[in-house]
Structure formats: C-alpha cells, structure tokens
C-alpha cells in the first residue's frame, strides 16, 4: 500500500467514472463511517462485457466480498482483485437505490429547487455516468456496494448493518485489465437512516505491478487462477 498516493474527496450523494488502466490501484476510504459506494465495471474495448455478481460469488463460494476476492466479468475474466480491506464485508446482492425509493424514504427533491443539495439516487447516477460512454438503462447490472454489509438469516431474510464501516476504513483494489468504472456515493437501498445520508469518501489512484504467481488473490480459490489465465489470454489477443 502506498500511503502518499494523491487522493480526491467525493461528497455523499454524487457520482464519478473513469477508465482505470491495468495494474492500477484504487483505494477507497470511508471518511466519516457509514458510507456506501455503488460500483459497476465494464470492459472499455467491449462494453457488452460487464461485472457479473453471481459468478463473482459462486466462483469463490462466498456471500460477501473482502480481501483476497476477485471481481469477475461475464466472460470469466477478472476486472480487479481486493488487496486489502478494513471492513471485512462488502455487499454485492443488495442492489441499488432509485428515484422512487429515495423519495419515499427521504422526500422528493430536484436539482431545479434544491440545487446541489438534491437527493440523488444510485440508478440515475449510474445512467448519468454511463451515458458518457454510450451506455444506457439496458446496460446496468447488479452492482457492488462497498462499505455496506447485508447479512442473511436462516430463513433467508436480509438485514442491513449501518455500523459495519467505521471512520477511516478503506478497501484497496488492483485492476487486472483496463476497466471502465462507474461509481456513486448514494445511500444503500436498505439504509434505514432517518435523514438522507451524505457520507463522503476519498479516492486514491496509483500505479502498481502485475500480480505475481504467489499473489494471494490469484491463489485464494481455484477459479481465480483460471480467471487470471483468462486475462492472460485476453491480453495476448488484444495487445
């Protein structure tokens, strides 16, 4: 981890996007605690290839994401791996907030009347960022929710833990292929907060090296080694 990497702060209820190059690191930090960062991934060379939440979970026999896990595309390749994590649990089954959910829970607002204080939602935030790259509603997929924990009871009931991420908690990703990243800092759809939560995060990007043969993410599950091999073959063909 490179502590001196330059960073920028993204306020709560905002959105952002960027094509992050292969081997780059992205470190997200929850400044105040209780943040949520919704995120989607696409292959910029073929936008039909995007993040696949079911494959990500079943390939690694897990219900949560944490250090050592990889995030898969629907082509069996690895967009990124989780190098370090202070939370221990990140959600990728809880979904995304939309305009009607935010209005019902925290009241209807609009930019025309509330300017930068209007209460944005995750669905529309992804649409705004995706449109910059030719993506539309049909291109949205199940997303990751960094810093959010959704547990499951024996009867299958889901529960949201608003205390799972403390102030200063961070998660660091290493990208294993060029990846278009869309993200927002809108609240998790299950967040029970009485007021619209505006939790800021910092984003730090810095260069890295190719994953070594003994990389813990590569070796944490048998499928991950196959995913890294799929990436190797992909880069032989496109580069």
Task: Report on this structure.
The protein has 239 residues and is an alpha+beta fold. The protein has one domain. The protein is 21% helix and 28% strand. The protein is built from 6 helices and 13 strands. It has helices spanning 53-59, 99-106, 111-114, 122-131, 216-219, 222-238; strands at 7-10, 15-20, 25-30, 37-43, 46-50, 70-72, 78-85, 144-146, 149-152, 158-161, 170-175, 179-184, 201-206. The protein has a 6-stranded antiparallel β-sheet. Strand 9 and strand 10 (158-161) form a beta hairpin. The radius of gyration is 17 Å and the shape is globular. The model has no long low-confidence stretch (mean pLDDT 96).
Helix content: 10-25%
Distance between the termini: 28 Å
Percent of residues in β-strands: 25-35%
What is the helix tally? 6
What is the SS-derived class?
alpha+beta
Characterize the main sheet: 6 strands, antiparallel
Tell me the count of domains.
1
- Oligomer designation: single chain
Task: Provide the low-confidence segments as ranges.
Answer: none
User: Which H/E pattern describes the elements?
Assistant: EEEEEHEEHHHEEEEEEHH
Mean pLDDT, all residues: 96
Shape: globular
Strand order of the largest sheet: 1-13-3-11-7-6
Radius of gyration: 17 Å
Number of strands: 13
Short description:
The protein is of the alpha+beta class and 239 residues long. Helices cover 21% and strands 28% of the residues. It has helices at 53-59, 99-106, 111-114, 122-131, 216-219, 222-238, and strands at 7-10, 15-20, 25-30, 37-43, 46-50, 70-72, 78-85, 144-146, 149-152, 158-161, 170-175, 179-184, 201-206.
């Amino acid at each position: 981890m490179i502590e001196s990497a330059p960073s920028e702060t993204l306020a709560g209820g905002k959105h952002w996007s960027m094509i992050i190059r292969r081997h780059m690191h992205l470190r997200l930090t929850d400044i105040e605690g209780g943040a949520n960062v919704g995120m989607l991934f696409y292959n910029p060379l073929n936008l039909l290839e995007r993040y696949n939440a079911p494959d990500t979970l079943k390939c690694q026999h897990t219900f949560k994401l944490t250090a050592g896990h990889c995030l898969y595309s629907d082509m069996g390749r690895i967009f990124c791996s989780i190098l370090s994590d202070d939370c221990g649990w990140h959600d990728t089954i809880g979904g995304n907030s939309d305009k009607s959910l935010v209005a019902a829970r925290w009241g209807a607002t609009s930019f025309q009347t509330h300017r930068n204080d209007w209460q944005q939602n995750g669905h529309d935030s992804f649409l705004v960022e995706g449109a910059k790259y030719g993506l539309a509603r049909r291109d949205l997929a199940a997303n990751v929710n960094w810093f959010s924990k959704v547990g499951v009871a024996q009867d299958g009931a889901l529960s949201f833990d608003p205390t799972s991420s403390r102030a200063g908690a961070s998660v660091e990703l290493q990208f294993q292929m060029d990846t278009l990243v869309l993200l927002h800092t809108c609240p998790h759809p299950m967040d029970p907060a009485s007021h619209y939560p505006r939790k800021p995060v910092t984003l730090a990007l810095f260069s890295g090296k190719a994953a070594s043969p003994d990389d813990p993410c590569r070796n944490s599950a048998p499928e991950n080694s196959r995913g890294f091999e799929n990436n190797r073959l992909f880069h032989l063909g496109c580069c």
